[in-house]
Amino acid sequence: MICILIEGVAQYLLHLFTDGGGPSLDDRSAYHAAVANIDFEWLVHFLDDYGFLYWDLRQSVRANDSHRIDLVWRECVSFMHTEGAHKTQYAPMALLRVFWSEALTPALARVYHRNRTLSLLGLPGSNVDLDMLIEKENLTIRNNVIRASIERITRFVRRLNFTAHVSRHLERVLFPHRNRMAYKKVDISRDVALVKQHLIATLGGTWAAANTPRTTLLLNPARAPAPWKAVERLGQGPGRVSFRAWMKGHLDTKVTWPM
Fold it and tell me: pTM for this structure?
């Protein structure tokens, strides 16, 4: 769903540039200056503050491009630093990921970057995050351990490396003529086109129409303050800790040895 929204909004902005008299997509300042239409402002910030970063992160995970993953984490530190989160504070996680990518010795860094993600089937370009392995193991346990207990789960996990290896090779013997299915991406073009057409019908198909002052038609009710405004306010005002001081304070609580 999120990839459909990202591409749909991007296609809408591309339409404004190619067919609607809009400025070049490379001129991001013109798009961020178009704040008369609050919905259009939200769309631009959605892409620039989140959508493109998420897209880049997913592609980098698939390719095990560890250094690019770290670059995205750097960009994420600021907008993940929020006063409104409840369960998970992702900004400290992003901060520590960036710290460890820089603090490791060269030998450890080589191991770290080489094994940043993994492919469950050994296929290039299909890597997933490391926690997917644990999720798959958890699913295997739930499907195969009857009347689960600590003892039975422990025994099953101890044997899993052996039984999984044997199972894969038995499948090759039992199904020698089975070919691996060709990789196919899910076709989201129809849904992307629906998002684009909805935005054209709602906000207009030209740059002038998209910048027409109006109250929100997409958000009901509109969130206040907007996420990018909330990020700008962090560390400002009496009693607030500056962003740099917050970073240093968080690292000082986690890194307690001399560097």
Answer: 0.77
